[in-house]
Amino acid sequence: MSRYRIAFEARKDLDTIWDYIAARSSAETATEFIWRLYESFKSIASSPAAGILTNLGPEGTRKFPAGNYLIYYRVLRGRKMLILRVLHGKRRQDSAWGVQSRTLF
Q1: Gyration radius of the chain's alpha carbons
Q2: Is 65 helix (H, G, I), strand (E, B) or coil?
Q3: pTM of the model
Q4: What are the structural domains, with CATH classification, of the chain?
Q5: Residue 79 region by backbone torsions, left for phi larger than 0, else alpha for psi between -120 and 50, else beta
Q6: Over the stretch 4-24, which tens digit does the pLDDT of each residue have?
Q7: What is the pLDDT of residues 46-63, one digit of tens each?
Q8: Region of 81 on the Ramachandran plot (φ > 0 left; ψ -120 to 50 alpha; else beta)
Q9: Do 25 and 99 meet the contact criterion of CB atoms below 8 Å apart?
Q10: Which residues contact 96 (CB under 8 A, 6 or more apart)?
Q11: 101 half-sphere exposure, CB direction, 13 A CA radius
Q12: Which residue blocks in the chain are alpha helix, DSSP H?
């Protein structure tokens, strides 16, 4: 079975998501949603090439949609993977990663 780890930034993302949902709905709803994200992590770990390569994050970073969220991850040695970020899809992804937008003229 493939394994995954969750990076510090992704843990902060998950805490923020939980807080947001709990404040607008309930702790139970927030917890259920986070568990669904963890199920997505397991699914991605079993098929790490499922995500699309992206130019955000470290080289080799992939993204995979989970509802309204994007899970960013990187495949490590031995088919292990590292969950890097979990961001809402409507959020400016480059800003969330701290990347300056580039305007081409």
Answers
A1: 14
A2: strand
A3: 0.87
A4: 4-91 (3.30.2310.20)
A5: left
A6: 999 999 999 999 999 999 999
A7: 888 889 999 998 999 999
A8: beta
A9: no
A10: 85, 87
A11: 6
A12: 8-24, 27-46, 93-97
